[in-house]
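Purpose: get a first structural picture of the assembly so the mutagenesis plan has something to point at.
Setup: two entries, given in the order below. No constraints added.
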Amino acid sequence: MSADVIKVGLLGLGTVGGGVIKTIRSQQEKLSARLGKRIEIVKALVRDSEKERAVQIDQAILTTDFEDVLKSDVDIVVEVMGGVEPTYDYVRALIEKGCHVVTANKELLAKRGTELVELANQHEVHLAYEASVAGGIPILSVLRQFLRTNDISGVRGILNGTTNFILTKMEAEQLSYQEVLKEAQELGYAEADPRSDVEGFDAMYKLYILAQLVYGESLPLADVVRKGISDLSAGHIHIASELGYRIKLIAQAYQTEQGIRLSVQPTMLPVVHPLAQIQDAFNAVQLSGNIVGDLLFTGRGAGELPTASAVVEDLAYLLTQPFAPHPAWKEIAATQSGALQEDQCSLCYLEGSCSSATPDRVLHFLRTAGVSIHKLKVQFDLGGVLRAGLITSGLTAEHEAVLESDFGLSVRCFPVLETAE
Amino acid sequence: MSADVIKVGLLGLGTVGGGVIKTIRSQQEKLSARLGKRIEIVKALVRDSEKERAVQIDQAILTTDFEDVLKSDVDIVVEVMGGVEPTYDYVRALIEKGCHVVTANKELLAKRGTELVELANQHEVHLAYEASVAGGIPILSVLRQFLRTNDISGVRGILNGTTNFILTKMEAEQLSYQEVLKEAQELGYAEADPRSDVEGFDAMYKLYILAQLVYGESLPLADVVRKGISDLSAGHIHIASELGYRIKLIAQAYQTEQGIRLSVQPTMLPVVHPLAQIQDAFNAVQLSGNIVGDLLFTGRGAGELPTASAVVEDLAYLLTQPFAPHPAWKEIAATQSGALQEDQCSLCYLEGSCSSATPDRVLHFLRTAGVSIHKLKVQFDLGGVLRAGLITSGLTAEHEAVLESDFGLSVRCFPVLETAE
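Result (structure tokens, whole complex):
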């Protein structure tokens, strides 16, 4: 690095990239005092160098050619372009030139992190990624700190702000998924193609990164249970609420005797559960340490400045730390299925015609089959449609099949997370 | 320090001291790997060396004479005996011998911290105190991290678990303060002499420490607004709830044009406010950074292991860091009174006989006096007692005096914290 300037390259200049520039500018004095050097953005890779931007930037810094970044001899690259291709190739080339990397890209880390960590260690450069999980919540640094004096048994949370915003609105305004999605897209909370958020991919990538940190390993992505929220109906949310529950897209990693398990799925929480209180686009992460107990961290999980705050903090931190090898990332295939365990409580939502399924007959069948029913809510509408919510344990896929075939019911079961867990 | 052992002295062996010993034992392997040395408790100062203890400890380690600790050549002292005298003298003597200090003692820090910080800097020893605020929540380390890239405008929270437990119980079970205090004492959540907790001293000490960190200065303790919970009645809590509010003992530090202000007082929160959700003996701290936005951290604020976790983490952390001077602590006297600002919203609780104060007459007086009334709840009981809750702005001490003298009402006003703030 040169004597008095740290040369930073930017890959991507969207919302977060703009936030990084603004933050470096507004905090330049603080940063210089801490680092003894000025931070300068010397090159920024963009798709379109003519585009109008919310942040003022010298046109000469912009380039659409990655080779310009590579040739500009940057000390550190901040990768906020997203995606895996060509991002992986770019980051790889920069690491091989001895450049430190700060990234907010959870997909890249979840898909190619094992290689990137190894490569960074080989070339003795820092790879920092606090911004990739839960935006401004410093969850990775907090986890690293706790891991030094605690065994952490599990971590769970709401890791995607878009889906939490949608679920909050669906409940509060009794709207359908499609109506709220449209509004979220208009507000800029959801992408034009919302699949990564609403199908749980984004939360899964973040969970994968958390698992690598907490357990020193993760499951391959293919072994992570992943269910999204796009098939949730106002009926599900209403019945849940009548039974005292709220649906959240919960990501969790925990240890079992057969190894770790990772899941991202709509989950029923008692309304008094701390994670049930997390509304709108907020994120929250709960961790359980054997010594410190349960802790909960809440904050904005995305957005220009919260994410930029984490990026700039990583950048400043790594400049003050000597290189130390990053613990290797490993993937261990799951040894058991990710399906609901039979003894686990679930909330089952049944819907169908009263003519084929009367509550009496349905309950008789379930009880005879050995399913325990802890709580029950039944509704009929004028059109003769039965909607029922049951808190059950012992309900298997076979029982679900019978409810569908013999009673003509559509069935959707959600795992239940109790407060005491 | 000797080649392969770090010699630790303990001042105090109560609940937290026992937790520290248990934690060091259960995490010895992890700690040794990290530090390259074994941690050994070589001396523990206790009041009574014959007392039965929850933790097994070699009798030869115990002493009732501080001189034994001083002579035993410890590298680090863990101070968990509490109080200011003689604790201050002991800690001072150890610092002067070049011994690092880890303390969980908020009272000591709030009353003598400016001197201890200066002394530690003079003797180039670490002074670490994560455990002194919010138990296992790593709030000081998180704040230090954010301060590097954020300007923090304010910090507020629930810093005392005992009072939060009492308020939670009073509301949930509609019990009086005295009934719940008794239960809390039986459960070990409150001390036999509960004054430090229930009168807000404990929370004030913690707030003082937070202010030193966030602003590089604090007010002298005498300038901190401090009100406790011992005069809260079931009536206050009931009226608050009817108006959509919940009372919490809120500690906050914030900047005004006239300098910083610190207060600890029962405060009305809308029930949807994140801090209103913090129940039982939990603590929570909310901070607002200009870049990261609002963050909330929740966890157990006290107890054997959460506090011990913070102590042991401090201990291990300082052993891996070279000495760096601690920023000096300063005290700046307040330049304005800590009373409620006139334009601030407050919830006023009025109680008196219907014969002297009819709602009509009271409201007429307030409106004529220019007080705005945003929300109102009035109750009468069979005995002719009027109880009213008013959300007002513009109510001054003079108005309160008139309500008391001319209407024979008892008046208690609480500041209101709105969600949007």
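Chain A has three domains: 5-132, 139-300, 345-415.
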